[in-house]
């Protein structure tokens, strides 16, 4: 079995939303707390850092070039350099209490962005979607920390997780984006890690980073545990597929809220890892706009 290896000499604060661009063979990610979007090209070892005005919880590449970004106060379109071009909407939550967190695109190129409810006193976060006409709709609520967005290969199911509540949901989805009833797909007991960011492979299996769990896991479409891969850090945050054959798993991790003692014991906290796997991933579609 292959072991995870650091992608390159880098440790971020809160890296999230790894996104592989097959056209340039590049990996993008956001460091939420550093207010940055990063781009790394493994072949040339080039590393670009794009400074942003606010925390970017999630983003997607646009078909027309540049990014769609969910920042603390709202969702914007930017150019390739990260310069703000057009505001799509305000954060539908109170931005003082809830920043954007996990998100991405569905098979039709629509952009989804969920929030994280900071006070943690009730399930105050939500999930919204931006369509090709740049219309934003809140599609789910009753969430504490939106995470784990992924879509089945046939596009019929949307998977999401609520990390603080230790649960993964599955929701039916039609081509027009209409949602069925949200169902509990898998619930995690205390002490085994909390489901964070995720990715789907071509066999319909769901890969999740298990925050506080020192590992990532792969589950069958029926929720059966198929694989576990340990990590040398406590808190992986998200996974994505990439590489020339789409069988490299990129794993972001965090060093947020860790003591100096833990950082001494786990010095790779905040690094990005690569792991060669037998499964093949599904490329993330770019955001399609009219």
Task: Tell me what you see in this structure.
A 4-stranded antiparallel beta sheet has the order 1-24-23-22, with no helix packed on it. A 4-stranded antiparallel beta sheet has the order 2-3-4-5, with no helix packed on it. It has a single domain (5-276), classed as Neuraminidase. The protein is built from 1 helix and 24 strands. With 290 residues, the chain is mainly beta. Helices cover 2% and strands 51% of the residues. The chain is globular, with a radius of gyration of 17 Å. Pfam families: SGL (PF08450). GO terms for molecular function: calcium ion binding; gluconolactonase activity.
* Major β-sheet strand ordering: 1-24-23-22
| Beta-strand segment tally | 24
Q: Report the CATH topology name.
A: Neuraminidase
Oligomer: single chain
| Ends apart, CA distance between termini | 45 Å
Please summarize the sheet with the most strands. Answer: 4 strands, antiparallel
Which homologous superfamily in CATH is the superfamily?
Answer: TolB, C-terminal domain
According to CATH, what is the class?
Mainly Beta
Q: Approximately how much beta-strand content do the residues carry?
A: over 45%
Shape: globular
CA radius of gyration is 17 Å
Please, how many helices? 1
Briefly note the structural class of the backbone.
Answer: mainly beta
Q: Give the count of structural domains.
A: 1
CATH second-level architecture: 6 Propeller
Q: Which H/E pattern describes the elements?
A: EEEEEEEEEEEEEEEEEEEEEEEHE
Write down the overall mean pLDDT.
97
Protein name: Gluconolactonase
Domain SMP-30/Gluconolactonase/LRE-like region: 14-254
Keywords: Metal-binding, Zinc
Active site: 196
């Amino acid at each position: 079995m292959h072991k995870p290896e650091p992608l390159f000499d880098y440790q971020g604060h809160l890296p999230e939303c790894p996104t592989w661009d097959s056209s340039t063979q590049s990996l993008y990610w956001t460091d939420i707390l550093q207010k940055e979007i990063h781009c790394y090209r493994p072949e040339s070892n080039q590393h670009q850092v794009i400074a942003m005005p606010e925390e970017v919880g999630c983003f997607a590449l646009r078909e027309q070039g540049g990014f769609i970004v969910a920042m603390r106060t709202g969702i914007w379109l930017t150019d390739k350099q990260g310069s703000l071009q057009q505001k799509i909407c305000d954060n539908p939550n109170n931005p003082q209490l809830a920043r954007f967190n996990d998100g991405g695109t569905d098979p039709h190129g629509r952009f989804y962005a969920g929030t994280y409810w900071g006070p943690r006193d009730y399930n105050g976060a939500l999930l919204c979607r931006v369509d090709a006409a740049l219309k934003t709709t809140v599609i789910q609520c009753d969430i504490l920390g939106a995470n784990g967005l992924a879509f089945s290969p046939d596009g019929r199911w949307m998977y999401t997780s609520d990390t603080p509540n230790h649960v993964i949901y599955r929701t039916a989805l039609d081509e027009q984006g209409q949602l069925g009833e949200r169902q509990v797909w898998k619930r995690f007991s205390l002490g085994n890690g909390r489901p964070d960011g995720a990715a789907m492979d071509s066999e319909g299996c769901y890969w999740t980073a298990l925050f506080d769990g020192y590992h990532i896991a792969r589950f069958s479409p029926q929720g059966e545990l198929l694989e576990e891969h340990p990590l040398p850090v406590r808190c992986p945050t998200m996974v994505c597929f990439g590489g020339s054959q789409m069988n490299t798993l990129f794993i972001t991790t965090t060093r947020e809220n860790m003591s100096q003692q833990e950082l001494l014991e786990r010095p790779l906290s905040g690094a990005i890892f690569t792991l060669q796997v037998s499964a093949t991933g599904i490329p993330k579609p770019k955001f399609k706009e009219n």
